[in-house]
Amino acid sequence: MRLIGQIHVSLKGSVIQRDPTLWEKLKRGFGARLDLDTDRVRVELEATAVVDQVRRALVQLGVGNALSLVIDDTVIFQDTDGKPDDLPDLVLALSEHSSVFGRGFTELKFAAEHEEAGLHLVIEARARAEHAEDEPAGIVSVGGRLRDLEPRAGEAAEDYRRRVEPLAKDPALFEAARLQFESFVGRLEGALKAAMPEARVEQRHAEARVVHAPSGDGAAAGPQPASPAHPGYDPFMVYYPPSPLSMVLDVMLISSFMHMLSPPHVLFVSPAGMPLGTAQEAAANPDLLNDADRGDDGAGDEGAGDEGDGPDDGDPWGDDGGGLDDGGGDLGDFGD
User: Fold this and answer.
1) Longest C-alpha distance within the chain, in Å?
2) How far apart are CA 175 and CA 266, in angstroms?
3) In this structure, are residues 130 and 16 in contact, taking their beta carbons and an 8 Å threshold?
4) Residue 322: helix, strand or coil by DSSP?
5) Composition bias, kind Gly residues: at what positions (predicted)?
6) I need a labelling partner for 81 at 20 to 30 A (CA). Which of 20, 31, 246, 336 fits?
């Protein structure tokens, strides 16, 4: 089960103007007024200030384990050794590069991880100095897993199945995890508001999801959302690439939830992140997932298409999606 949350951070910026054409220059020479405004905005951001604000918000929640800091494709900090409580090391590494990035940047990515109440969480903050007018300057994404459901080092598939199967039949476990995750995302939103009084901080969603793959395919089939603006973007998968056993877990959970009288509040999604329906809806109508396998056009699929595809169309946050996957490969051994 994937726990996914997203918070948008908006700041006031100045509208970027385009260069006038030759004809427009001539018109301006005769006193004409030109509208050179574009639909893009530039925000004056300093890397040290952004990192400090996010760090203060994380520390307020007890988060002290840094994963990485990347500014304009330059790796400033990377926790390759899985060292705990190394947030001060990240700040120190940034101070050594302050002369380079102190005056601004194009894109900043700051990631940390945290454990509380049986949840393993990855928090990723991204900021861009230039963005579309209707987009936020920053996106804070949270991805989580239940620690008890994560595969253990060297655990065989059959041993994993035997250990997890009783847990998969306990709806209270998943409901408690969902509520705890919602609480964390809500507290993170509040901490960011306190650390960034000049910004508009808005939580977009915090929910539990289970991936339903088409019959015969693995849960990893199909593209994973690479843009942090996508509602299905999961930073946990960037820094902890999924194990093949995660597909086993998805199948077990779907089967278990479908046979519960009162399944937990969980959303079933496609591998690409498109919502297929809630666990309650699937339990009441088993054909819901079968229709998704056949690709039938239903009301749920139409809504899924709007949610899943919209944010990626022309979305600059997705330009470096390949880089995210590469980063996941480099950083996938944290905490082992």
Assistant:
1) 81
2) 8
3) yes
4) helix
5) 319-336
6) 246
The whole-model pTM stands at 0.81
DSSP E strand stretches across the chain? 2-10, 14-17, 37-42, 65-71, 74-78, 107-116, 119-128, 130-132, 138-146, 200-211, 267-269, 275-278
The helix-helix angle for 87-95 and 47-60 (nearest 10°) equals 170
CA distance 184 to 270: 25
Write out the two tokens for 164.
Answer: 């997890």
**Angle formed by the axes of helices 157-168 and 245-258, nearest 10°:** 30
Rounded distance between C-alpha atoms, residue 294 and residue 242, angstroms: 26
The DSSP annotation for 146-193 comes to: EGGGSPPTT--HHHHHHHHHHHHT-HHHHHHHHHHHHHHHHHHHHHHH
Phi, psi of 32, deg, nearest 5: -75, 145
Residue recorded with tokens 């199909």: 222
Whether 91 contacts 51, CB under 8 Å: yes
Question: For each of the chain's 336 residues, which pLDDT tens digit applies?
Answer: 999 999 999 998 888 878 888 888 888 888 888 887 787 888 888 888 999 999 999 999 999 999 999 999 999 999 988 899 999 999 999 998 877 766 678 899 999 999 999 999 999 999 998 878 889 999 999 999 999 999 998 899 899 999 999 999 999 999 999 999 999 999 999 999 999 999 999 999 999 999 887 664 544 445 677 889 898 899 999 999 888 888 889 889 998 998 888 889 999 988 888 888 898 888 888 788 776 665 654 444 443 334 444 444 445 555 443 333 443 333 334 333
Give CA–CA dist 293/135, Å, rounded: 33
